[in-house]
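Researcher: Last one for today. Full complex below.
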Amino acid sequence: MSEKRRGPGYLPVLALRVLGRRTGASLLLAAVAALGVYAGCALQSLVVQQQRAIAETMQNTVIHCTVTDVRGMNADNLNISTAYVEMLLGRKAARDPSLADMDRAVANIKAKVDWELAWPFGMTLCRILSFDSDERLAGAEIHLEPGWSEEDFLWDELVCLAPEGMEVGEYVEVIVSQPEASPRLKVIGRVSGGPDNVLYSPFFMGWGDGKSHAHSIQSCTFDIRDTARLEECKEKLYSTPFFTQPSVNATPDGFAVGVLVHDEVYLKSLEELRANLDTLRLLQPMLLALMGGISFFAGFLVNRRRKREFAVMRCLGLRRGAIFAQVLGEQLALGLAGGLAGFGAALLTGMDIRRGGLAFSGAVIGMFLLGAAVCAAVAAGGSVMKLMKTEE
Amino acid sequence: MFHRQNVRQPWAAALLALLLALASAFSCIGLSGWASFRRQLAALDAQYTTVAYGANYDADIAYNHLPKEYLDDGSILFENGEFWASPNRVNALAEQAPGLLGRNTNVLTAAYTPNQKGLSSGAVEPTAYVDVYDEGRYAMSVAAMRCLSVEENKHRNSIWTDYYIFRFEWLEPVCRMSAYDLPEHSKVLEFLCNVNMCVDKDGNPRSPFETGKTYLFRGMFKDFRTHYWWIPELQDYGWYRQTQETWHGSDPVTDPNNLTYWQRFDTSLPLCTENGASLSVDGVGHPYPLNPNFYLDARELSKGSDSLNLHWSASVPEGSWPLYSEYEGDWRDFLETEEGRVWRDEIIPCCERSHDSVAVLLTDNIQGLSQFCQEESALLEGRFITREEYDRGDAVCLVGADYALFNGLSVGDTITLDLYKPAYFTSRGGIGLGAQGANFYYTCCMPLAEENRLGVTRDYTIVGLYSAPARPCDPDGHGFRGDTVLAPKASAPEVLAAAEEDRVTPLLNTLVLKNGSIGEFEAYMADNGAAGRFRYYDYGYSEMKSSVEAMEASALRLAALGGAAFLIGAAVFLLAGFARMTPSARGLRLLGASPRRVAGEMLAALLPLTAAGVLAGALLGGLLYGKVCQMVLSQSLAPDWPGLAACAGLELLVLAGAAAVWAALTARRSLMRRKQE
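Model: Here's the assembly. Have a good evening.
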C-alpha cells in the first residue's frame, strides 16, 4: 500500500527499475529497435546513393554518334556536303523547321576536310571545326594569337594555323588548284608537335573570291549534348528528313544520311543500374514488414514473461490502465533509446538520412510498440487469480 | 516435458517459431539481395571490355640524348637519365602488372567461300579502292602481257632500285578479280619484279624478259591510284595523277582527257635463303611467310661477282609454280599445252579461290578489337557472339554489313568457310586523304595456296552484321574491312593448331584488363619506365564507376543488415524460448533429473521449433523475394535457392550451437543459489 501512496509518479521509476533488473531482455529489445531504425536508414541511404550514382553516370557518360550512309556504312568515306554539318550546328533552320534547335541535341561536332595545296608545295589545307576534329592534332600544342579562339574555326574567316617550323609572315598565300583559288590566309596561331605539312583553317572558310564553294566531307562525328535527355535528342535528330537511323536494308536516296548512336552499352548498363534501384525500392516495404514483425513478436514475447508481475501489481491495487501505461512506457523508453542508438549509428556510418529513412524508422518503432501494447493489454486485461497461478 | 509445454501452449510456440521465421526471412532476403546485386554487377561488368593496345610499339626512339647503356633486353638508358623500354621489356612488365586478366591473341587466317564473292576495297565504291587492302588475295592475278621494251635504268642509285625498266602492255587479264573489270585506261602499265631476278648466278645483269615477246604472268594487280580529284570539264571525279617525274623511267599513261593513270603489275615474291629463312620483312619487321609456290630461292652473291651490289640473286625454286611463262599466239591455246597445264589446273584455280575468299579473324572478344573499341566498327544488325558461344566454339560469326549486302546475306544465314592455314603479312601504309592518318598498318592474308588448305569446311551461322570503315587505318591495332568474318577462336581448332606463334603480329594481340584497373596498370608501367606505351579502351566503364561502387556498397550493406537482423531475431527467440522453459527445467532438476537430461530435453523441444522457424523463414524469404521481384521488375531476379539452403543450414547450425550452450548453462544453474534468491 505504501507503493500506492507514492502515486502514479512512482511508475516511471518502477519501470526504470524493472528495465535495469531485466538487463538482457531490455538490451535485446533496444537492439531490435536500434536495428530496425538502422535498417530503415541504411536502405533509404542505399536508394539515395544509387540514385545519385545513376545521375552522376548519366552526367559523365558521353554518347558518341557517327554519321554514316543510310545503311550504317562508309563512315570514313561519306562524300556528303558540308551542309549536313551546318544542319547539325543548327544553322539551317530557315531551310527546314525540323532543324531548329538541333544544336540543343548535339554537341562537339567533329568534321574535317583535307585539301592538297598546289602552293605551298607539299602542304595540305585541313579545314576543321574544332581542334579535336583532326586526330593528328592530338597531343599537339596550339598557340593562338590574342583575340582568336577555337570558336573561330566554326565560321568562315580567312585565317589559318601554321606549323611551328614553317616560315611565314603575318599572312600565307595558298594556291588551290580545284577550284582555282589563291586565298591569302592570316596566320592566327602556330601548331607545335603536330604535322609539319598541314595548315589548319576554319571549316566553312571560303576562298576569298566572294563565291560560295560547297565541298564534301569524308567523315563526321558528334556527341549527344545531354545524356540525361538521350531519347529526346535522338528523337530530335531522327525527326528531320536529313538524318535517319541506319538500317542495313535501307535504300540510299542520296538525301538522308544515317546517324549511328553508340548507346548500346550505356543503355544496357543503365537498365542494370535502374533494376538495382528498383530492387532496393522493392526491398524497403518487404524489410519493413519483416522488421515490424520481428519488433512486434520481440515486444510481445519478452513481456509475456511478466504476467505474474502484472498480477502482483494488480493485487497491489494498480488499475489496468496504469499497468498498460507502464508497460507501454517501458517499451517506449526502450524503443526510443534503441531508435536513437540506431539513428546515431546510421549517422556515424555516414548514411544519407532523409525523410524516407525517418519514416521507415518510425514505422519500425511503431510496430515494436504495438507488439508491447498487445502484450500489455493481454496482461493487464486478464483475471488476477489466473495470472497469479501462472508459473514463473 | 518441454514438448508438452509446447503442445499445451501452441500459440506461444507458434509465435516463437514465427519470430525466428521472420528473422530468417529477413536474412534470406538480405542474402538474395546481395546475390542479386552481385549478379547485376557481374552482368554490368560483362558488358564492358577493358583492353590495352601496345601503342607505337615500334616507335622511333628519340635520340636527343646519347645512350649511356644498352640493356640485355634491348632497352636503352640515356645519359640524361631518360629510359626507353624495349618492346620485350614492355611485354614482360605488362605480364606482371596489376589488373591484367590475360592476353587475347587473335588469329587471322583466310577462307575460301564457295558460294560468295570476295569484296575488294573498290568493289562497291570505286573511290574507296586502296591497293594495300587488296594485296594478297584479291589482287592476285594472271595476266597475258607483251614486253614493249627493256631499258637500263640510268637513274639507278640503290640496291632497291630496278636495274631494268620494263614496259609491258596488257593483252588480256587471264584471271583477275571482276571488281577490277572497269574500263581499261591504257594498255601500258607499270611492271614490278624482284630486282634480284635480274642477275644471273654469277651476278651479271640479265633481263628475264625480251622485247616483243608475250608472257603469262602471275602477280599482284594494282589498279589505278586511289587519289581522286574533281574535274570540272567532266563534272566528275578523276583519278589522281601521278606525274612522270615522280616515277622513274616509265612513261605515264594518258587517257583521251589528257589525264594520267597508273596500273601496276607486281610479280615480286619474298626471298628464301638456302637455310630456309625469309629475307624479306613486312611492315612490322616480321619475315614474310614462305608459302610453297610463293617465294623465290635466294643465293648469296660473292663480293667479287656482285657488280650490281645486290647481295643476292633470285630464282624460282625447283618444282615451284612458274612466275611467268613465255608463249606464242593466243594464251588460251597455251593453257591447253603441257607447259600451260600448271597455269590452267593450279595457278588460275588458286587465283579464283583467292578472289572468292574472306579474311577470318578468330577472337574471344569482338568488343575487345581495337576497331570496335574506337567505335569505327559497330553492330548494325543482330547481336554479338555470347560468352557461352565463345567458350563452346560454336560455328557462329559476324560479317561486315557491306560484305553481307554484296553477297545477299543476312542475319541467320550460313556462310561456308573452307579454312586455310594462317599466312599473312603486314603492310605499313599511308593514304593521306580524308580522315585517314598518315601511317597505319594493314595485315593482308596470302593467296589461298592449296598446300595451306586445312581440309576443314564449316558452315558458320551469321548472328550479326557490323559496320567497318572503308579505309581502316589503325596505327596500333588490327584494322579490318567488312570482308572479315569474326568468329570464336574455339570454333576452328585446326586453324589455331596450324598458327605459328612466332609469326603472330603484335597488332593482333590485346591485353585484357580488369574493368576499372587502367589507372593501376598504367601507374605500374610508369613506375617501371614504360609510361604511355599502351592505349586503353574501356567503353566508358570509368564513367560508370560511381554507380558500380554504389552497387557494391548496397550489396554488402544488405548482406550485413540481413545477418544482423537474424542475430537479433535469434537472440530474442532464444531468450523467449529459454525463459519459457527455465522454471520447468528447475522443477525437473529439483525432481532429481540430471543436468544433461534436462539440457537434452530442452534441446529436443527447441530444435524442431528452430528448424521449423529457420526453414519456413528461408522459404518465405526466397518466395517473397522471387515473386515480388518477378512481378515488379522487368528482369527476373530469381532467388539463389542453393545459396538460401546453405544460408538456412548455417543459421540452423549457429542456432543449434547457441541453444546447446544456453541449455547446458540453464540446466547446470545452481538450484541452491536460486532458492536463496
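Chain A touches chain B through 78 residues (CB under 8 Å). Chain A has two domains: 2-55+270-389, 64-262.
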